[in-house]
């Protein structure tokens, strides 16, 4: 049984169709990279997988008892966040909001979950620091820790390395890969980064304006699609 | 001076003004943090103008001012929020259009009916004399409701304010919480208008939040600091206005402005 599968979905953004008749599915422990040009519908697709928007046609199905609100999500940063006065701990703890149910306040179990996420990403020493005083790499770690509070099974990351310098980017990808291999967390990542796609993923979904290819990494690399996309930049 | 201060508390109208003022200051400070961070502070301004318009119309028609204005401003809040969610730029000008139109309708209905009487003048520029016993009761009930709802939904309001997309993905209905904030703001503004005046009330929403953000490093400390600052500035402002016979709303806003400057100076010193 697949963890999450899209069946013949068509998605629209601001009234324009961006993804047409797309089908794919991923299983537990997979590491899927979604690539494609700007405007090919990558972010829209992640929103559909999260249940934030509904497909114009087709369905997104969750398997293995997964619920859409139990997906850990790392969205692109917004302007609001850049000068937001909140401590690292407050932000990480807010990842547990999907487990609040009808409770108004967080319980001890939620707090220990947040503690664990802080340790897991090595940011417990900056727990009281203000978010907007952090470097870009630290901010992404905080948002990843928050996403980990929300899930044990599936992370969806939307261009997590945007704006990070190369060394920090590599460190960040290593952390994600570790979560994937050691903790068997399924990863779906939107990325522009060719090296990330090559080094870390095991399945690839390439969206183009009018079509797509969904394949394992090896199949993809041997396809014409893969050769032309990764061509010059591949190592 | 101490004698005058003791004297101050012996007037019923002052006690009413202080009670309602403290409650409204608390509400506006709490909501202000979210509104400022979400870049919604202009909604407060727009709503106070709509409030003025609807008060003027209600007075012209001989209807109970607060009971008409509260629902009208709540509807306006929902409308303004929708507009600004659709598009930041269009929303901005839409707020401007709605607020000046409401203001114009207000002024027109005043001139057609009675001319600018004291009651409406007080809505525009504020008057602590305007509070009736009924107003005080209604204000206490509504502000208690605003504070209670804010505390109960504090964690969710934080999640939605910091990151709407993440909140939605985790199953927290962000639009509903935005609506809650807008409705609570509408209530607070209408309550505060009588004393501060509709031209000044939006300052109460913006100042405490912006001032606390100079120095505070966490959302909780910003929230608490805003609440304390707002009440302190209100108390200093109302005492000054009583002692020197100055307009209440303007005095309170000036104290807030001075406080912001003090905080900015401290921020500069701390950063060195």
Can you give a write-up of this model?
The complex is a heterodimer of chains A (235) and B (272). With 235 residues, chain A is α/β, with parallel strands linked by helices. Chain A folds into two domains: 1-71 and 156-235, P-loop containing nucleotide triphosphate hydrolases (Rossmann fold), CATH 3.40.50; 73-150, no CATH class. Chain A has nine helices and nine strands. In chain A, strands 5-6-7-3-8-9 form a six-stranded mixed β-sheet, with helices on both faces. In chain A, strands 2-1-4 form a three-stranded antiparallel β-sheet, covered by helices on one side. In chain A, a hairpin with a 2-residue loop joins strand 1 (4-13) and strand 2 (16-26). The two termini of chain A are 35 Å apart. Chain B is mainly α and 272 residues long. Chain B has one domain: ABC transporter involved in vitamin B12 uptake, BtuC (Orthogonal Bundle). Chain B is 86% helix and 0% strand. Chain B is built from 13 helices and no strands. Chain B has helices at residues 2-9, 12-37, 41-60, 65-86, 88-113, 118-125, 133-152, 154-162, 164-169, 174-196, 201-215, 219-244, 248-271. In chain B, helix 3 (41-60) crosses helix 10 (174-196). The longest helix of chain B is centred in the N-terminal third of the chain and has 26 residues, at 12-37. Chain B is globular and about 50 Å long. The chains are: A alpha/beta (235), B mainly alpha (272). At the A-B interface, helix 3 and helix 5 of A face helix 8, helix 9 and helix 12 of B.
How would you summarize this macromolecular structure in one to three sentences?
The complex is a heterodimer of chains A (235) and B (272). Chain A is of the alpha/beta class and 235 residues long.
Topology of this structure?
The complex is a heterodimer of chains A (235) and B (272).
Chain A: E1 4-13, E2 16-26, E3 31-36, H1 42-49, E4 57-62, E5 72-74, H2 79-82, H3 88-93, H4 108-120, H5 136-150, E6 154-158, H6 166-182, E7 186-190, H7 194-200, E8 203-207, E9 212-216, H8 217-222, H9 224-230
Helix pairs in contact in A: 4-5
Chain B: H1 2-9, H2 12-37, H3 41-60, H4 65-86, H5 88-113, H6 118-125, H7 133-152, H8 154-162, H9 164-169, H10 174-196, H11 201-215, H12 219-244, H13 248-271
